[in-house]
């Protein structure tokens, strides 16, 4: 692993959702001290929407879901990060987080961030009973299942986890966190 940064950075995990993807990438592009963590599906979807995962933020280190043991979690133990953002977070990722499953890079870094008492901010995709969401070539209507909405509700109760519903609320939560860290 590389040398630790002089000061802790923001860790940003991207799951396999196109919902709010463009808005999330716009935020990431403006951040100074951020590293990107891609699930396999996240990396795939980024490409489907016409982006190069390594070119989102030229100052970022990027980590990909390629190993069963998720070696990048060690960066959280080392103190490299002050905050984890998971955005956008699919219903699958949210369900695994709620159930305590750590079988992807994203769910593993979420679990380890919690164990290291590093706050997390999650932009959950399934927050309303009916939504319009962008596919790579059109807007589609989706109806999140009751179980998906319930997992999002449960995640709101997790310690050190802030769940937001929109990119605007995500940006506000990130700014509040950066203000607290930079004091």
Query: What is the overall number of helices?
Result: 7
CATH class: Alpha Beta
The CATH topology turns out to be Rossmann fold
Radius of gyration, taken over Cα atoms and rounded to an integer in Å: 15 Å
The total domain count is 1
Uncertain runs with pLDDT below 50, 5 residues or more? Answer: none
Report the β-strand fraction as a percent range: 15-25%
Major sheet: order of its strands? 3-2-1-4-5-8
> Mind telling me the CATH superfamily name?
Flavin prenyltransferase-like
Fraction of helical residues: 25-40%
* DSSP, total strands: 8
* Largest sheet: number of strands, sense, barrel closure: 6 strands, parallel
Mean pLDDT: 91
Shape annotation:
globular
Termini, distance in Å? 29 Å
**N-to-C order of helices and strands:** EHEHEHEHHEEEHEH
User: Which architecture does the CATH hierarchy give at level 2?
Assistant: 3-Layer(aba) Sandwich
What structural class results from the helix and strand content?
Answer: alpha/beta
